[in-house]
Design brief:
By secondary structure, the protein is α+β, with helices and mostly antiparallel strands. It is built from four helices and four strands, in the order ααββαββα.
C-alpha cells in the first residue's frame, strides 16, 4: 500500500468514525444493562419481587462529533439504597432501618469495561479495513 492509498483509507475512516463508534457504544450499553439486570436477579444482588426495578435500567447513547457516549442508569428511587445499603437510619415517621448492600452495578463494571475495549477494537478494525 502506498501513502496515497493510506490517505484515502484514513479519509474514509474519518467520514464513518462517528456512526461506527456510536453503533459500537450502543452494543456496550446493551451488554451493560443486561449484566446489571442479571446481577439484580437474586443474591448477592437484590431479589426480584415485581421485576419493575430490574426493568428500570436503561442505556442512553448520545452521538458526539467524532464518537459517542453511553450512560447506563435507573430512575428507580431504590437504586442507590439497594446498591449501597443504609445503616442505622430512621425515616420521617420514626421507622428504624438497617439494610445491607446488595451490589449489582459494581460487580458489572469489569464486564462493561471489557466489553467497551472489545467494541472499540472492533470499531477500529471496521474503520481501517
Amino acid at each position: 500500500m502506498n501513502l496515497d492509498d493510506l490517505a484515502d483509507r484514513l479519509d474514509g475512516a474519518a467520514d464513518r468514525l462517528g456512526d461506527t463508534v456510536e453503533r459500537h457504544m450502543r452494543a456496550v450499553g446493551t451488554a451493560g444493562v443486561a449484566r446489571i439486570r442479571a446481577n439484580a436477579s437474586g443474591r448477592p444482588g437484590p431479589n426480584v419481587i415485581t421485576g419493575r426495578y430490574r426493568a428500570s435500567w436503561r442505556a442512553v447513547t448520545e452521538p458526539l462529533p467524532y464518537g459517542a457516549e453511553c450512560t447506563i442508569g435507573t430512575s428507580a428511587p431504590q437504586g442507590r439504597r439497594l446498591e449501597f445499603g443504609f445503616w442505622d437510619m430512621t425515616d420521617r415517621i420514626g421507622r428504624h432501618y438497617f439494610q445491607p448492600p446488595f451490589p449489582h452495578v459494581q460487580p458489572a463494571l469489569g464486564h462493561i469495561e471489557d466489553t467497551l475495549h472489545e467494541e472499540m477494537r472492533a470499531a477500529v478494525r471496521e474503520l481501517l479495513s
